[in-house]
Amino acid sequence: MFCTRYSNNIFRGAMIEHWKHMMSLGALLFELLSEALGLSSDMLKSMDCMKGLFMICHYYPPCPQPDLTIGTNHHSDNSFLTILLQDQVGGLQILHQDCWVDVSPVPGALVINIGDFMQLITNDKFISAEHRVLSNRTETRISVASFFTTNLLPNSTVYGPIKELLSEENPPIYRDFTLEEYTKGYVKKGLNGTSHLSYLKL
């Protein structure tokens, strides 16, 4: 699946090219992540982790009083993996050991975020990145986020912790779920700084 918001003829070609590059990079990343888990390189792809790619272009205008607002609230992504292309303005922060840390833009670099679905199926081997975006007083910020998720497609697949990762010493932390079930709860909760992962814990 390929989905863009507010696409038109002016930049549709560029977005399609970007989508092709993201699919290629995503395939490589899912192979590397599978191997890092000690699994076959095609394990995550065989679970349809990259079946859907949803892309959103973000536009954050300057805010004269950035201390009174925030660009995007504290949250983690309801995806398997998110690839972010950001400009040089900055504003992205991740939560690390209860402190907000700037993710300073690096020319030519992409930001890779683990999403909630990946944390669930890997039984906390990989942890989703809690993040937010700050407003900027004088500059406009633009970014393109590519979410590997099938939650916008009809999908009755039941997901749960990958059985090959479980043992007596590493029992399942989460119950089985469908992406539709998780997404409905995630959207209802909103970006309020609390993780929806806790609702699926055993």
From TrEMBL:
Organism: Brassica napus
InterPro entries documented for this protein: IPNS-like_FE2OG_OXY (IPR044861), IPNS-like_sf (IPR027443), Oxoglu/Fe-dep_dioxygenase_dom (IPR005123)
Signal peptide: 1-38
Keywords of this entry: Iron, Metal-binding, Oxidoreductase, Signal
Record domain Fe2OG dioxygenase: where: 51-150
Official protein name in the record: BnaC08g43890D protein
Any Pfam family: 2OG-FeII_Oxy
Recorded family membership: Belongs to the iron/ascorbate-dependent oxidoreductase family.
